[in-house]
Amino acid sequence: MCRILLNVQNFRNVGCTPKLSFSSKFEGELEKSTDNISNVEFDYLEYLIYLLRRKKKKDLLLIIEDIDRYENIDIFEQLREVNNLLNSSDNQHTYKFIYAVGNSIFSDTLDKNISNIRTMYESKFKENVSKFFDFTLNIIPTMDSQNSYEFIKLNYPKILGDNLINDEELFMTSQYIDSPRILIDIMNDYHIMEKNVTYEKKEHLKILYYSILKSKFYNFYVLIHDIFEDLKNIINNYNNIDVYEESETRREEEFLSNASYFSAIEIEKSGRNLNYASISSLRTVWNSIKDTPDITAIKEQHGNIIICHSTYSSDPIRLDVILNAFESKNKDVVFSSIDYRQSIILEMKSVSKKSSEILKMYYNQNNVTFIEVMKNVERERIKNPNKRDFYITDFLDIDFVKLGIIEEIINVNDYNT
Is the overall model pTM greater than 0.70, yes or no? Predict the structure, then answer.
């Protein structure tokens, strides 16, 4: 029996000049009488038939792997047609195709967001699989998240043997490793970081944690830098929580007093018979605009809000006029919470809290202040065109990240690691 292993990922890009692992030079025109399968996407199938027929073996076994990565079931239909064509047109030889593929390509509940149990139960998965294969054999993974702990102990005994990481810590973090290939990559990073990164107490758990985190964010690991920079800003701002609360109170009071004064001036200048703005109405305006990033954005989004009006006049005073007055008097700093806070921060004394203690507050029910601080940091980042646009909550809601925060593994000063 002749055994050929075909990696579809390499084969699919063959084009008109196939270069396969088994050497074979084409010597003549391809016979197209019965072998022709017209399909632009799978034009390589003619070459596959040609190569298989050139093998002068009675029984030929073709093993195809990685084909499910394309998430295209049409490939199976074409290869099944090839297999049938070969066997029906050649009585002297037997051609068998073996596919090493995952189950998901045949599932009608492929969408990972679908969690309806009845939908899964009534799925036609097995029926779909039986259309393509005469025989199926399920392969149990060598390693997954359930046995990764034992797998690491068996293959990397030095971690526990040298007391670098205790047994409980290893079990806790290993649950997030679900592939032997990923484990190898993680351990390579772990050994590199262990030799090149210096912590005060040689925190090997931290090194392993960040090695796993890197594998989870492999394609966009540079984003981690920006995320940790945001976390650091959140902690710094929260450590100045007294300043934050005081600055928000002062911002509101300063807006109310100045807006009331400027609106009165505008009424006097216009000579129109308008009602003066009440504090309650100005407070409603403030609640609408206080979270807007800057005065320019406030003008664009809220400039038409009416501040002073009267049933006897059709020409009211709008917010954009009041905002212009703020700018002319250099009082527009009140519309930037960060800048305003910096202007009063030296007047107040704040009590610092541990970074882990602050980040844990996100997972508490009473986290309103933390959320406000976090949103404020996000708004300031979004204003910077050189920064990426993302939501911190998407990061903090990840189970592995939550583990690192709750167990006090993550430190915001590690973002350059």
Answer: no
